[in-house]
Design brief:
Rossmann fold; 37% helix; binds glycinamide ribonucleotide
């Protein structure tokens, strides 16, 4: 247990994909390396791998339809997400590959407690497929950013960054794989600092 009191922050995780960042956080939490209790996982993609991975850890996980919106969380769907997370007791929210814009109502429900991981050195290459953007641009260094979420796209206050070199023969896939290795170290490390500060 990493804090003296044995207390943990209650974390909700939102993801749209395979959930490898979720697994990195869940493993660190399970090992007692970070004072974090993941209380709920939600996804906007019915067959997202993150659901099965959450179930493996015994963490409640469900798909909640984001309809009718294509790339944002808004309206009734947004209210549903907030309600489920509140009911689960979530105090902090980690976006882990959640490929939708979260808006003011959601952020107001968890003020200054929503964070995101992004696969570039922000403010460079916001948005989608940042590893491909890095290769297309020809940068020699890219990386990972963990930041607070605000109502812009990948614009919130930066908490931590880690650089990743771009190799001569990198493809978008090999670069993303190396970025993910750093993501899986950085996200739990940032949560550890935020949680310990709060507790
Ligand atoms: C991660 O690389 C994350 O940084 C990225 O999606 C991937 C999710 O992987 N997020 C974004 O691009 C957000 N704009 P995971 O499902 O294996 O954690």
């Amino acid at each position: 247990m990493s804090n003296v009191s044995g207390k943990k922050i209650k974390l909700g995780v939102l993801g749209s994909g395979k959930g490898s960042n979720f697994v990195a956080i869940a493993e660190a939490a399970q090992a007692g390396e970070i004072p974090v209790d993941i209380v709920q996982v939600l996804t906007d993609v019915p067959d997202a791998g993150i659901i099965e991975r959450a179930k493996f850890f015994g963490i409640p996980a469900q798909y909640v339809s984001p309809a009718p919106f294509k790339n944002k969380l808004d309206g009734e769907a947004e209210q549903q997400y907030i309600q489920i997370l509140k009911n689960a007791g979530a105090e902090w929210i980690a976006l882990a590959g959640f490929m939708r814009i979260v808006k003011k109502n959601f952020l107001d429900a968890f003020p200054n407690h929503v964070i995101n991981i992004h696969p570039s050195l922000l403010p460079l290459f916001p948005g989608l497929n940042s590893w491909k953007q890095a290769i297309d641009y020809g940068v020699k260094i890219t990386g990972v950013t963990v930041h607070f979420v605000d109502s812009g796209i990948d614009t919130g206050k930066i908490i931590a960054q880690k650089a990743v070199p771009v190799m001569e023969n990198d493809t978008p896939e090999t670069l993303h794989q190396r970025i993910q290795v750093e993501e899986h170290i950085l996200y739990p490390a940032v949560l550890k600092i935020l949680a310990e500060k709060e507790l």
